[in-house]
Amino acid sequence: MQFERQSGVFLHITALPGPHGIGDLGEGAHEYIDWLASANQSVWQFCPIGPTASIHGDSPYQSYSAFAGNPLLVSLDTLSEQAYFSLNDVSIDAPDARHEVEYDAVREFKTAALRTAAESFFDEFGPTESFGRFCESQSAWLDDYALFMSLHDALEGAWTEWPEPIRTHESAAVEHYRNELESDIAYRKFVQFVFDRQWRELHQKATDAGVTLVGDLPIYVALDSADVWADPEAFELNDAHQPSAVAGVPPTESDAGQRWGNPLYDWEHLRETNYEWWISRLERLFELVDITRIDHFKGFESFWSIPADADSPGAGEWKSGPGKDFFDTVAARLGQLPFIVEDLGHIDQSLHELRESLNFPGMRVPQYADWCQEGDMYQPMHYPRQCVAYTATHDTNTTVGYYNSLSARQRDCLHYNLGIDGHEINWSLIDAVWRSDAIIAMTTMQDILGLDSHARLNTPETAVGNWQWRCNSEGLSDALAGRLAALSAEHIRD
């Protein structure tokens, strides 16, 4: 699919300004869209929006569901305005964290508030017609997700440790627990109902403002997820419903590789079913976003398979992914979907060939550049048209933090290549990305604000301190909007 030349800002939803300790789908998100429009930006990109888990540091890339929305993103103020409940009825004080998300406190408060709202909703309104329509339209994933999350609380732990009948999704056990946990299941469905409603209102706001929503599609799902529990045939599991192999990346000359631990797909089975599980996943995702970035696109061409009982990534081997057949099947079912693909890291000719055969734009990030190497592919002046360029990503340092970490030689080469002196390096890199040939140019709110490493969103391979940074409302200034708008006008980016 061909994209238009445009630009935008990455800001994860949890990082939005707003009340109750975390960014949500309420007023802060709507005001951010207004700010983007005033800055003449037409793209808003964010991380995956599924339910996160404290055991995984609330990483949006390790979710309980590939279909559901994160309850922590539901706006309580919006629910209160709609007379579903009153915040005064919640016995737990709301966290007051403007600069960092304190997930445990946020989860405790929001869970209490959402349960209060659900009780009020069912007592005052009953299962409304709109609630019934939502539950019916999303039943393919919603029924299993709601049961899964209820079981997660009732049985206190990961599904891989549940008693065998329910662990293996036996129909009699499923029916038993659906009846036993009926009220809690209704609560989980209510939360998804209000998430969906608030998201669609936000999406309409973005559409009206000319802002495109770009989501994120992790190729793998978490082992402890409703997806793996409810559809074990889609994954490489043994007879005990445990992974036989897990995902990761191999060692290189510079590192020891990574063992992610996610279960791998049974691509042969999925191919036989015309990728039905994936079709459903993409249908749901594109109900919510306009474009999506595919994380670890390499895995569709070939994937690193590590035996589940092996601790070392080096014990794995490359196996063939579904390749073009997968995307051809998706296109036949859903049309030509707008994908951006993450093709950083393990790059080889076969990966390029697959991406080019599909005409998907890849990614370019100047932080990957060797500034002293003539013609380096990550220097902005060498970006092809068919790519999306980012000053930084959710996994990298901020531009200021990156610049501060450069060697003197690399810094001098950067200055020479860009014709700058290092003053306001954040705006110099934004300008370089904006003036490049990349079809879409992206920066981050941290880079617009000129923040250093303390404001990075995530440091890969670290377990704590991630996904916490927040922007306050003062950061969304008219002056910064005007500066970004002027830059976009200069480089003809709508």
Q: Which residues form runs of ≥5 with pLDDT under 50? A: none
Number of helices: 19
Tell me, briefly, the overall form: globular
The side-by-side strand order for the widest beta sheet comes to: 9-6-3-2-1-12-11-10
How would you explain this protein's 3D organization?
With 494 residues, the chain is an alpha/beta fold. It is 41% helix and 11% strand. The strands form 2 sheets. Strands 9-6-3-2-1-12-11-10 form an 8-stranded parallel sheet. It has a 4-stranded antiparallel sheet with strand order 5-4-7-8. β4 (245-249) and β5 (258-263) form a beta hairpin. α3 (103-124) packs across α8 (182-209), α4 packs across α5 (139-154) and α5 crosses α8. It is globular and about 70 Å long. The model has no long low-confidence stretch (mean pLDDT 95).
What's this, in brief?
With 494 residues, this protein is an alpha/beta fold. The protein has helices at 27-38, 76-81, 103-124, 129-137, 139-154, 164-167, 171-180, 182-209, 226-230, 267-272, 276-288, 298-301, 324-334, 349-358, 399-405, 408-418, 425-435, 445-449, 478-490, and strands spanning 6-10, 43-45, 212-218, 245-249, 258-263, 291-295, 302-307, 317-320, 339-341, 362-364, 387-390, 440-444. The radius of gyration is 23 Å and the shape is globular.
Describe how the helices and strands are arranged.
Elements: E1 6-10, H1 27-38, E2 43-45, H2 76-81, H3 103-124, H4 129-137, H5 139-154, H6 164-167, H7 171-180, H8 182-209, E3 212-218, H9 226-230, E4 245-249, E5 258-263, H10 267-272, H11 276-288, E6 291-295, H12 298-301, E7 302-307, E8 317-320, H13 324-334, E9 339-341, H14 349-358, E10 362-364, E11 387-390, H15 399-405, H16 408-418, H17 425-435, E12 440-444, H18 445-449, H19 478-490
Parallel strand pairs: 1-2, 1-12, 2-3, 3-6, 6-9, 10-11, 11-12
Antiparallel strand pairs: 4-5, 4-7, 7-8
